[in-house]
Amino acid sequence: MIVAAVPRRRSETLVEGEYAFTVRNFEQIVALLRAHSGIALTDAKATLVYSRLAKRIRKLGLRDFDEYCGLVETAQGASERGEMLAALTTNHTRFYREPHHFDHLRQKLIPRLMAAAKDGKRVRIWSAACSSGEEPYSIALTLLEAFPEADRHDVRILATDIDPNILAKARAGLYSEDIVAPIPAGQRERWLSRNRGDAERVWRVKDEVRALITFKQLNLIGDWPMGGRFDAIFCRNVVIYFEEATQTFLWGRFKNMLTPEGRLYIGHSERVDTDSFVSDGLTVYKLAGGAQ
Q1: Tens digit of each residue's pLDDT (9 = 90 or more) over 124-143
Q2: 215-235 burial string, b = 16+ CB within 10 Å, else e?
Q3: Active-site amino acid positions
Q4: Cα maximum dimension of the chain
Q5: Which of 115, 58, 133, 65 is nearest to 261 (CA)?
Q6: pTM exceeding the 0.90 threshold for the entire prediction
Q7: Are 262 and 232 in contact (CB under 8 A)?
Q8: Which residues pair with 40 in a beta bridge?
Q9: Level-2 CATH architecture, domain 2-88
Q10: CATH class for domain 99-287?
């Protein structure tokens, strides 16, 4: 597969392969992706877009990218637009990714949240862009290690993602041996179980962990139907795929969804609007003027 030099005409081929992929095709797909998800792709991603969507063209039995773009731009193509978004969404994650965030959660937030829960108050944590579930399950394990009876109180984790296919995997809570390796052995034995008769040594997250989490499909630039605020929001390594205006828009929305003492956890390469937030260290932010 050859990436052509920067073309001057929209009809010129951008990527050569099984299907002709023109500048016009790429621009149509980029515009749709930005409009429906907020994700902004540069020309450097042309080969990635081609390789992932060529599989969709093949599966649908379409002739070329012209026909595919024509489909996803119509009302009748709504279902395939969803498949397109899923195909172009990055789902890199792992258990306890950026472990200092879970140390901060355990040391700084959970003692206060435990006291609130025991006092009959609600505790809510949101894993935005939860991918295949490793992040919300890591949050749940961190909670349960300190507060094993959390599921008997009003403690819940909301886990959302734009991709319904990856959410189905997250709900299943099934992971291979190499994926669960970052989970400390003691936690793994207590909160996960091996599937009986499974030669591939697949682990399943136990029901008491899963009971804490609600998985929902949600587009970060779409409607947010949640009624209450959150004590912590994890949105890590997500906004780097958005343009600056979209990032600013999201920081404002997250601000409005946090309790006064809440915390926003973001990726190590991300920064938030310091007029609204104050750094709490290690890419954790609190509301400016909020509780210390």
Answers
A1: 999 999 999 999 999 999 99
A2: beebebbeebeeeeebbbbbb
A3: 52, 161
A4: 66
A5: 115
A6: no
A7: yes
A8: none
A9: Orthogonal Bundle (1.10)
A10: alpha beta
